[in-house]
Amino acid sequence: MISKHLIIYILIGFIGAAVDFSTFLIINVYTGLGYIVANTMGSLFGMINNFILNFTFNYKLKNKHLQRFALFCSAGLIGILGSNLIIFLLVELMNLQETLAKTATLAVVVALQYTFNRLYTFRKELDQSPSAHTS
């Protein structure tokens, strides 16, 4: 059975992906700052959006806001670095168009970040070990 949290996380993820992708397009097309800067900024805006929505509506947690945000950002920053590397390789080595390269990275990064955030960031009790988290 699919977890309720997974379904809501995916829906929030679509919103975050829209924020991420639209920011990427705007910066990449209209500013001339380049696709790596555009990807980084889009990912950051999407990450902040997703934390706020997941914290408020999905997991409905009321404690350790800063600690959870730090964990979420840690996963997000690792995701941004990985995403930037993948996009760079796809664009520079495989001559893939920048927007397609960005699209290709989203599924991989989202899956890895969901797993980390479900196990660590959004545990009811941060002091609890990940294996004790069953819901």
UniProtKB/TrEMBL annotation:
Transmembrane segments: 7-27, 33-57, 69-91
Intracellular or extracellular location(s): Membrane
A GO CC annotation given for this chain: plasma membrane
Keyword presence, Transmembrane helix: yes
Domain of life: Bacteria
UniProt entry keywords in alphabetical sequence: Membrane, Transmembrane, Transmembrane helix
GO term, biological process aspect, one: polysaccharide biosynthetic process
Domain called GtrA/DPMS transmembrane: residue spans: 9-122
Alphabetical list of InterPro entries matching this protein: GtrA_CellWall_Glycosyl, GtrA_DPMS_TM
Topology class, membrane: Multi-pass membrane protein
Alphabetical list of Pfam families matching this protein: GtrA_DPMS_TM
Stated family: Belongs to the GtrA family.
Protein name (record): GtrA/DPMS transmembrane domain-containing protein
Natural source organism: Pseudodesulfovibrio alkaliphilus
